[in-house]
Recover the amino acids of this structure.
């Protein structure tokens, strides 16, 4: 090894710089891009904007900055737009609720399909736990299982 230490350090520095140049675009790609607003967010922003505009319009009218005819026309248009936005938001919420109910139903269906149903379908008279077929004692509370010829739990 006949490298002077200075050359070695310079080489190391160059290597680090090169590594950074190569790696930086990768980091850039990983930084989260600003998510475009969802439809709901856009609607809620518009609702706030409409309410703000109506307040400003009311203020302008009270301070005699606009004529009554202009005020009434502008206000009617804003109120109408606000109603449209509210309707759209409500429709969106109803769709969300529908999707939620469907998801819950699917979940329950899956759970029921996954739960093994005992062949005899009997339950413990003591605690109500499902009994495996042929069980002599309840696996949950330990109560002796009363066997009946019909396979139905005796009362
Ligand atoms: Zn039991």
């Amino acid at each position: 090894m006949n490298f002077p230490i200075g050359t070695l350090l310079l080489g190391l520095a160059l290597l680090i710089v090169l590594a950074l140049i190569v790696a930086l675009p990768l980091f850039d790609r990983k930084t989260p891009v600003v998510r475009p607003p969802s439809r709901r967010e856009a609607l809620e922003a518009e609702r706030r904007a409409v309410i703000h505009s109506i307040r400003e319009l009311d203020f302008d009218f009270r301070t005699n900055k606009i004529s009554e005819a202009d005020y009434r026309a502008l206000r009617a248009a804003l109120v109408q737009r606000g109603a449209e936005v509210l309707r759209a938001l409500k429709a969106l919420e109803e769709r969300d609720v529908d999707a939620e109910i469907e998801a819950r139903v699917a979940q329950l269906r899956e759970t029921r399909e996954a739960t093994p149903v005992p062949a005899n379908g009997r339950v413990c008279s003591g605690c109500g736990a499902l009994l495996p077929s042929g069980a002599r004692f309840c696996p949950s509370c330990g109560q002796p299982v009363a066997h009946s010829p019909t396979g139905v739990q005796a009362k």
In short: The radius of gyration is 36 Å.
